Amino acid sequence: MTSTEAAAIALQDHAALWRVGEISASEVVDSACDALVAGLDTPNLRILAACTRAEADYDVHDLLPQALAELGLTLHPVGSKAGQEAAVRALARRMLAGELQPWELTFRIHRRYGHELPLAERLAELDDEYGMLEDGDGATAQADAEVTAEARRLAAHPAGAAEPTDPPVDAHGPTREFPPNKLRFPEPTELPGCG
To answer: How much is the pLDDT for 139?
Structure first.
């Protein structure tokens, strides 16, 4: 894997983690800077990388979708199953890179998704198992090995692969869904003085 490919995966992972609230906007800006250093370059990536920490919380929302689109990367809609799965895969890659301990990975996944996300079900189960382990009986090493194997399985999925059910992402973020209007206008015969 080239450094630009690794930087693209890291930027997309940061985007997925930011979308689910796992990391701050300034960490996305740091990843954009790393991507520029690695050789990725687009107009909106440069603007994103130039954000100060104070600007990041306000500007990442608008700049990140455009920067990723220019790079041909995917930004899943907020709250989508594909977005949650992308975040799980990103956390798995972080664990494999040594940024998280195996128990931290299972704890974060279990805390955020419980047993509700099928892709992460095994990690949630392993977090339950960590809670029942005795210190020093060798079971922790076995659980760590199982978490590492599951993280490898999750990380093997391409970072940029979009699920076919994902709707396209608008450059300005997801659209708001409004409930149907349930107003009923009275018939003229129902109004006082009419009829």
So the answer is: 82
